[in-house]
């Protein structure tokens, strides 16, 4: 939901990723943890993860006071703007 209470349309993968961020105490996830959880059978999901992050970042930033930050391919964090 947006701050105004409007529903945000997310794909199932986008929803899963946001849920992972929100349920993690530090709101930081390693690249490896995300890939293993979202694509357990894919040997190298780096490109798929990059695409997911690239598509979800503008949605998160446009509809909340949050942003997704990257630590040079090691981890991603959900932070306040």
Q: What does the model show?
A:
With 81 residues, the protein is α+β, with helices and mostly antiparallel strands. Helix content is 47%, strand content 17%. It contains three helices and three strands, in the order H-E-H-H-E-E. It has helices at residues 12-23, 31-38, 46-63, and strands at 28-30, 66-70, 75-80. It starts with 11 loop residues before the first helix and ends with a strand.
What's the short story on this structure?
This protein is α+β, with helices and mostly antiparallel strands.
Furnish the topology, listing elements before pairings:
Elements: H1 12-23, E1 28-30, H2 31-38, H3 46-63, E2 66-70, E3 75-80
Antiparallel strand pairs: 1-3, 2-3
Largest sheet: 3 strands, antiparallel
Low-confidence regions: none
Mean pLDDT: 93
Helix-strand topology string = HEHHEE
Strand numbers in spatial order across the main sheet: 1-3-2
List the total number of helices.
Answer: 3
Overall geometric form: globular
**What structural class do you assign from the helix and strand content?**
alpha+beta
Distance between the termini: 17 Å
Q: Give me the count of strands.
A: 3
DSSP strand (E) fraction? 15-25%
The residue fraction in helices comes out at 40-55%
Radius of gyration: 12 Å
